[in-house]
Amino acid sequence: MASEPKYLTGDKEGIKGFIDRFDEADCFLKGKRIVFVTNNSTKSRTDYQKKLTGMGIPATVDEVFSSSYSSAIYISRILSLPPSKNKVYIIGESGIETELRSENIPFLGGSEASFRRDITAEDYKNIASGEALDKAVGVVLCGLDFHLSYLKLAFAYHYITQNNALFLASNSDVTLPNNSTLFPGAGACAAPLVAMLDGRKPETLGKPSQKMMDAVESKFEFERGRACMVGDRLDTDIRFGIEGKLGGTLCVLTGVTKAKEDWEVQDAARPAAWVDKLGDLSLGL
Fold first, then answer.
1. N or C end of the chain: which has fewer CB within 10 A?
2. Chain-centre distance of CA 155, in angstroms?
3. Is 9 exposed, middle or buried (0-12, 13-18, 19+ CB in 10 A)?
């Protein structure tokens, strides 16, 4: 059984001892190399850099590693799609489009107005026959889509079944926190396709996928044993750090995880340490 997570809030020496173990961290810690790893695919790295700067957190675009960027890197540099099947059909927002564009990956769907409408009798006919399908689509990439529709799902399903397109997901988060409660996440957008495909799940490229960890390590060239994962979600953030064999994991109770009882249930990922909020670490700096 994993050891009991250490509670650090108010423990100056405990905080200092914990922080001093690491060179890298996924949070804002003075004197440490920072990587901001996010599963939010709706924003590009540039969007996140602007958001962080607006919050008073200095960051560069290169310090941000989003699931949309991870997906683009995987498609362009790992899959090696043939020219005849190199296009991506997107369920998602502009963040995915921006990162695919940065890797010169052709795409359709996403924010296109033509997919944000009701399905028609003609659509049913042309999708079923394949006439409405782009034969160059070799990947269906599903992320969080604020405009998810029946039409978008219909195209995605038939690209997978008729075109034999690969089924990828930017991340598997079923929920996302907002205004002190939960709302549907990217995993909820992919769920109808999983059900239609008899339980077949997409290849996931965000936390806790180790494909994302390998990509982060390749880009930043850090020593895993000297890195700490900081996050608010056990099934993505903390599991990402544990399965990636990082030197430590730190859970903050300002997001999805609300109390230590959350990791005391069976099979839950257990952090090495936890604090009530990220600012509590300042006591040991």
1. N
2. 23
3. middle
Banded model confidence at residue 32, pLDDT cuts 50, 70, 90: confident
For the stretch 225-263, pLDDT in tens is 999 999 999 999 999 999 999 999 999 999 889 988 899
**3-class DSSP state of 175:** strand
CA distances from 125 to 119, 121, 130, 131, 133 (A): 11, 6, 9, 8, 11
Which residues, other chains included, contact 186 with Cβ-Cβ below 8 Å and sequence gap of 6+? 39, 41, 67, 92, 142, 143, 144, 169, 170, 171, 172, 173, 206
> CA-to-CA distance for 47 and 263, rounded, in angstroms?
32
Residue-wise pLDDT for 112-137, tens only, equals 999 999 999 999 999 999 999 999 99
